[in-house]
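Assess this one:

_____
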Amino acid sequence: MQLNSPSSIDQPFPIKRGQLAIVILAILALMGLWTISDPSRLAASGILTAGDYVGGAFCHRIPVRSFTVMGRPIGLCARCSGMYLGFFLYFALVTISGREKWTTFSPVWILVTMGGFIAIMGVDGINSYSHFFPNAPHLYTPNNTLRLFTGLGTGLAIGTFIVPAVAQTLWTFNAQVQKAAIGTLPEFLGLIVITVLAGLILLMEIPIATYIMAILSILGLLFILTGIFTILLMLLTKRENSLSRGLQAIPPLSVGFIIACLAAAGLVTARIMFIGTIHGIPGLG
């Protein structure tokens, strides 16, 4: 994938998107270094705690099935971390490459492959769930590595469908680029390589890297919801296909993000009311 395609950039940027991404990662790394340098800061980290509550709205958060930052479980279990990190990577690569207005879905062979990733995660998820019940039949012993990588594949699949759907809803037909953001074998393989590398790094549980990926996976979760709510918002207000420039997308996307946060807050509040905790599920872990 070419990371500096100008096809959908409205105007010159004082800093290129790839450079901006590096700056953001560097800031997150500094935040992570400062957080893990003091055990008390790590335990009371506001960002990680916020991630716990967002994750608690959608994930079981069983500690033994989660990665940790120096022993502190992150906001999502291994499978959910993979799924939402996979989506974030897809979204980030599309955005960095300037392809956020590319509206065509990927070729059928890519869509079928992505569907296969979802099916594989489904099989692994059912098998993993069966281990909560000792007498239930199961195919193999599950582990966090399988949970992570099956989640990553599903996250890419979600991105393959949601990202172009959002573009189809936001942009005018004249602004749209009738191409697939991931449409060729080299682009697909590049996406897979980057995703696998991210998964391997997360498996190593390097504190700073895990801290960064914990934040990115939570953002991936919120961005999926933002995309869905933005589509609904544009359709309900009959403003679909009305935007032509990037800055015009900020208001509807911001509203979608706020609704996503409110939805997460409502769901995690309901969870606390019904089961009393966001750390695991009583009786299961």
About this structure: The first helix runs from residue 17 to 36. The chain has one domain: 17-275. The CA atoms of residues 56 and 141 lie 25 Å apart.
